[in-house]
Amino acid sequence: MPPYTATSLKAELNARGWRLTPQREKILHVFQNLPRGNHLSAEELYSLLEQREEGISLSTIYRSVKLMSRMGILRELELAEGHKHYELNQPYPHHHHHLVCIQCNKTIEFKNDSILKQSLKQCEKEGFQLIDCQLTVMTICPEALRMGWPSTLPSNWSCTRAISEGKTLKSLVAEDEDKE
Amino acid sequence: MPPYTATSLKAELNARGWRLTPQREKILHVFQNLPRGNHLSAEELYSLLEQREEGISLSTIYRSVKLMSRMGILRELELAEGHKHYELNQPYPHHHHHLVCIQCNKTIEFKNDSILKQSLKQCEKEGFQLIDCQLTVMTICPEALRMGWPSTLPSNWSCTRAISEGKTLKSLVAEDEDKE
DNA sequence: CTCGTTGCAAAGCGTTTGCATGGCA
DNA sequence: TGCCATGCAAACGCTTTGCAACGAG
């Protein structure tokens, strides 16, 4: 799947009885020029376009990102921030996943082909068609750990389950095989 | 790691200056008796408890599932349904992931150890501490494909999988009560 | 010309919060 | 007894929707 251009976007929209509007073109353009590792919320996209004096109403923003997500052009991210973020849905080999600090929301992008392979395998097994797969790794970042997590929470808080889960798994990583 | 009991829940709560209340105990109980592969939204949990005449206010539900998620007892799922779902956070080897139809929300649970391994590997590389990792595979189910996805869908169409999924809540209550 | 699309404002919906009351440690 | 937790209702923030005007095909 090649990256979208205004022309191919128009073609795909028209094929489904939808239309290419200046608004949709501008939105696509923003995402195409977004530096790698960035993703925008509807609100952020809105104010970004506002700053460029290409204002688009918030409702159109919402309608467009939803449509473009359903078309497979954008990717809807559910990070731990209480609202959705969007980015270009880049096919393999640009496909990637996210590691998020649940304390400060810091996000790191990472690639891992085997995850996509595993997802595909699962889809084929069930007879479903893969649209996207997202691995979200919920973590505590080093800064948050240094800042005192988990003591930023009441007294001697700790997520004992997660900790012992981590310990159990170290042995698994050692034997790491990455076989599909 | 052993599953939580009312006693161990109390111990962990008290250790952090929190308290075991009948409400929290009932909520834990519901999740412990939930058939595998099921997860509840706050609203569903609320009406489930209401049907048993053990009513708990919605705000307490929200406060409790949030607290228990942060303690690592529950797992907060971001499926493609516009609201969060919760399930017991079962450590390896019961850890699992989800395949979701973005049209009808039909969800299939699947296990895959390599995903957990890859996540842990990534965490160690970045120096982050793993709390949880969730692979969500967004798909179109065979039925939605047959209906002509994506161009010919009526705006409010949902395939029969979604309908039968919706019906399960009642049967869950029945099953759960049998186990008491 | 038609019918999808936009902008605006209002509504919707899941979730959170302030506050007085209740109840666990 | 002190203080966390609950229930209620109101507030909140993100997102969706109704409607009249607009404009792409």
From TrEMBL, chains A, B:
Name listed for the protein in its UniProt record: Ferric uptake regulation protein
Main location: cytoplasm
One annotated GO biological process: regulation of secondary metabolite biosynthetic process
Organism taxonomic ancestry: Bacteria, Bacillati, Cyanobacteriota, Cyanophyceae, Pleurocapsales
Gene3D superfamilies: 3.30.1490.190, Winged helix-like DNA-binding domain superfamily/Winged helix DNA-binding domain
Keywords: Cytoplasm, DNA-binding, Iron, Metal-binding, Repressor, Transcription, Transcription regulation, Zinc
Cofactor(s) this protein requires: Mn(2+); Fe(2+); Zn(2+)
Subcellular location(s) of the protein: Cytoplasm
Oligomeric and partner information: Homodimer.
Manner of cofactor binding, per the entry note: Binds 1 Mn(2+) or Fe(2+) ion per subunit. Binds 1 zinc ion per subunit.
GO molecular function, one term: DNA-binding transcription factor activity
GO cellular component entries: cytoplasm
Residue sites binding Fe cation per the record: 95
Pfam families: FUR
